[in-house]
Design brief:
homodimer, alpha/beta, Rossmann fold, Dehydroquinate synthase-like, alpha domain, 2 domains, methylglyoxal reductase (NADPH) (acetol producing) activity (chains A, B), alcohol dehydrogenase (NADP+) activity (chains A, B)
Chain lengths: 388, 388
C-alpha cells in the first residue's frame, strides 16, 4: 500500500423522497443560485417544477443555465461563468447526471478565475478558488456527485479533458433513487458500464499488498452486476436503482476504494479521444475499449486478472492455466456488456479507422498514459485497432 | 436499504513517515494546544519527543494531559476541560489509541459547555459546540480517528457510556502504521477483535436489500482475518500493520460500510457493562460476548449467518442444514478469537456470576438494546450466563 491522503467532505443525502429537500439544503448555502441542468428530462419528469417550487419557498433567487450537453462543452461552461458574474451568483445547484455536474464544477472554478477556464484543463493553471456547489443526481454513473473532478469538451479543438480540485467537491449531493426510474434503458446501461469502468481503473494496478482495496472494488463490481438487469427489466425497482446509485458514488468518491493504490485511467484517456471526435456516449465508448485494453495488458500482472475472474465472475480456475483463467474473466466482461445491450465495437457507432492515428496521438499528448501498463502512442493505436 | 445521510469531513493522512507531519498539521488549526496521551508508551517509543520537537518548530504552544486510562475516566476528562479553560486552549491533539482519542473528544465537547460534561453521556444534553481536535493514531482498533463518537467511564458510578456528534470528528488524523510496531501482542489481538466486532454490529442486521454494504463488511472481516496473525508473528510487518490500521478506520468511519442499514450494538452495550465494573480490555470483553450473542440471536435471520459462514470463513454449506452452517460460522469465529489469544470466557478474567444481575439491569437502563434481536434484561442475562 502506498501512502495517501483522503478527505471527502461532501454530504450525501440518500433515499426515497430526499428530492423534497432541495430547497432546504440549497438555502443553507446560497441566496442567489445558478440552476444548471440538461435537456428536457427534468421538465418532463416534473422534477424541474418541484425544484423551483422548493427553491422559491426557501427564499432562494434562481438563475438558470439549461441545455448542458451529454459531453458538456466549454462554450456552455463559459456562458455559465458569465451568467454567474453578471447576476452575483453565490451557489451553483446542478440537477442531472455527471455531465451536468461536471459543467457546474467547471463554472464554479471559472467564476473567480481571471484567466480562461480552459487553462485548468490544459495544465496551465491550478484551481485555487471556486463557488460552492450542490447536486441533485438523476443518473447513477460518474460519481461526480462526491468528488472534485470535472471533464469538459472543447468542441472546436476536438479535445475532451479533465480537471479537478477538492474545492470542487459538492457541499451536498441529494441522491434520490426514484429520480432514476425514468432514465432511458441505454443510459442505465452506459451508466453501469461507467461505474464498472471506474472500478477497473483502480482495481487493475501494480501496487502490491492492497487486499482491502481490492475487495472493496470487487464488492462494487459484484453489486453492479447483480443489479443492472433488475433495473433494466423493471425500471421502477427501487432497490436495484438504489444499489446502482450508491455503487456509482462509492466507485469514485475521491478514491476511497483505492486509497494507497496507483490507478491506471488509460482506458478513460482513450475513450475521451473517441468521444471528443465522435461525441458518442462515454459509457458506450468504455464498453468497447475496456475489454480490449484488458486483452492488451493482462500479462503485466496476470494474477490480478485471475483473481478478477474468480472473485467477480465466479469462474472456476481449477484445471485452467493462468492465461486461460484471465481470458475467461475478460470474456465474461465482454459478454456481460453485450448482454445488457452495450456496444462491442467502434463499428457499432459507425466509427472506422480513419481517425485512429489522431486519437492515438491526442491520447498521449501530455506523455504516455496508464500505469498498469504504460501506453505509448502505438499501444493506444493497437487497442483502438482491437476495438474497430 | 433505508434512507441515510453520510458526511465525514475528517482528513486522513496515512502511511509510513506521516508522523513527521504532526507539527505541520497541528499548526494549521491551533496555536495553543492540549496534548492528550496515555501511559508511557509514546515516551518509550520516542514519539512523544518527536511530537514535541515538531510542535515547537511549528510555533505551537503545548499544554499536556497525560495518563488517560484504557477505559478513559470522567474525572480525567474533567481535568482536561479545566486545563483547556485555564490555558485558553484552541485545539486538542490526541496521540494514542481509541481511549485517548475518546477522552480528547469528551474534553472538546466539555470545554464550551456550561453544564456537566457527563450530561452528554446520559442523554441530558446534546453537543452543540466543540473545540476542534486532531489525532495521531497508535493502535488499530476503535475507528475513533474518523468518527464523532466517544465512550467514557464514570468510575464512581460504575457506568460506561457513549456520546457523539459530527462536531467531534477529528479535523485530521495521522495514521502511520509504523507507530503500531510496538503495540503489545495482547493489544494487537484486542484491537483486531474490536475491529471485527464493529463490523459485526453493522453486518448482522434485519434491513433487507443491502448487498454493497454486506460485501464491504465481509471485505473488512476477511482482510483482518488474513492480517492479524502476520502482525502477531512479525510485529514490524508493515503491510499487515497498514492493512489492520486501515481496516480499523474503515470499520467505523461514520457508518460508511453500513449506510442505510439498521445497526445492532447490543454486544457493545453488554461489554460496556462488564468493563464498567471490572475494567477489563474492551476487545477482550467483546471476544467473550460476541460469539455468545451470535448463538443467542442467530435464528432471527439465519440466512445472514449462513452467508457469513460462507463468505467470511469459506465454509462449504452444501449438505449442511441452515442451522449447521450458521453454527459452523459462529464456531469459526470463536476458534479464531481463541487461536489469536483472546479470552473465551468471563472466568478467564476472573469474573463470576455475582454481578450478572446488575450488569443486565444497567445494560437496559434506557430500554431494550439491539435491533437484530431486541434484548430485554433477561436476554442480556442469558447471554452473560453463556459467557461465564
Amino acid at each position: 500500500m502506498n501512502n495517501f491522503q483522503f478527505h471527502n467532505p461532501t454530504r450525501i443525502i440518500f433515499g426515497k423522497g430526499t428530492s423534497d429537500s432541495i430547497g432546504e439544503w440549497t438555502a443553507k448555502y446560497g441566496k442567489t443560485v445558478l440552476l444548471v441542468y440538461g435537456g428536457g428530462s427534468i421538465k418532463s419528469s416534473g422534477l424541474y417544477d418541484r425544484a423551483l417550487t422548493q427553491l422559491e419557498a426557501a427564499g432562494v433567487k434562481v438563475h438558470e443555465l439549461a441545455g448542458i450537453e451529454p459531453n458538456p462543452r466549454l462554450t456552455t461552461v463559459k456562458r455559465g461563468i458569465e451568467l454567474c458574474r453578471a447576476q452575483g451568483v453565490d451557489f451553483i445547484l446542478a440537477i442531472g447526471g455527471g455531465s451536468v455536474i461536471d459543467a457546474a464544477k467547471a463554472i464554479a472554478a471559472g467564476v473567480p478565475y481571471k484567466g480562461d477556464v480552459w487553462d485548468f484543463f490544459t495544465n496551465q493553471a491550478r484551481i485555487q478558488e471556486a463557488l460552492p456547489l450542490g447536486t441533485v443526481l438523476t443518473l447513477a454513473a460518474t460519481g461526480s456527485e462526491m468528488n472534485g473532478n470535472t471533464v469538459v469538451s472543447n468542441w472546436e479543438e476536438k479535445l475532451k479533458r479533465g480537471a479537478g480540485s477538492p474545492l470542487l467537491n459538492p457541499v451536498f449531493s441529494i441522491l434520490d433513487p426514484v429520480l432514476t426510474y425514468s432514465v432511458p434503458r441505454n443510459q442505465t446501461v452506459y451508466g453501469s458500464v461507467d461505474i464498472m469502468s471506474h472500478v477497473f481503473e483502480q482495481y487493475f494496478s501494480l501496487t502490491p499488498d492492497t487486499p482491502l482495496q481490492e475487495r472493496l472494488c470487487e464488492s462494487i463490481l459484484q453489486t453492479v452486476i447483480e443489479n443492472v438487469e433488475l433495473a433494466l427489466d423493471n425500471p421502477e425497482h427501487y432497490e436495484a436503482r438504489a444499489n446502482l446509485m450508491w455503487c456509482g458514488t462509492m466507485a469514485l468518491n475521491g478514491g476511497l476504494i483505492s486509497v494507497g493504490v496507483r490507478n491506471d485511467w488509460a482506458s478513460h484517456g482513450i475513450e475521451h479521444e473517441i468521444s471528443a471526435i465522435y461525441d458518442i456516449p462515454h459509457g458506450g465508448g468504455l464498453a468497447v475499449v475496456f475489454p480490449n485494453w484488458m486483452k492488451y495488458v493482462h500479462k503485466e500482472r496476470i494474477d490480478r486478472f485471475v483473481q478478477y475472474a474468480e472473485r467477480v465472475w465466479g469462474i472456476k480456475t481449477e484445471g485452467k492455466s493462468q492465461e486461460e483463467a484471465a481470458l475467461a474473466g475478460i470474456q465474461a466482461t465482454r459478454e456481460f456488456f453485450t448482454r445488457i445491450g452495450a456496444e462491442a465495437r467502434l463499428a457499432d457507432f459507425g466509427i472506422g479507422s480513419d481517425q485512429l492515428e489522431r486519437m492515438a496521438e491526442e491520447a498521449v499528448r501530455y506523455g504516455p498514459i496508464g500505469s498498469f501498463k504504460v501506453l505509448a502512442k502505438d499501444d493506444v493505436k493497437a487497442i483502438l485497432e482491437l476495438s474497430l
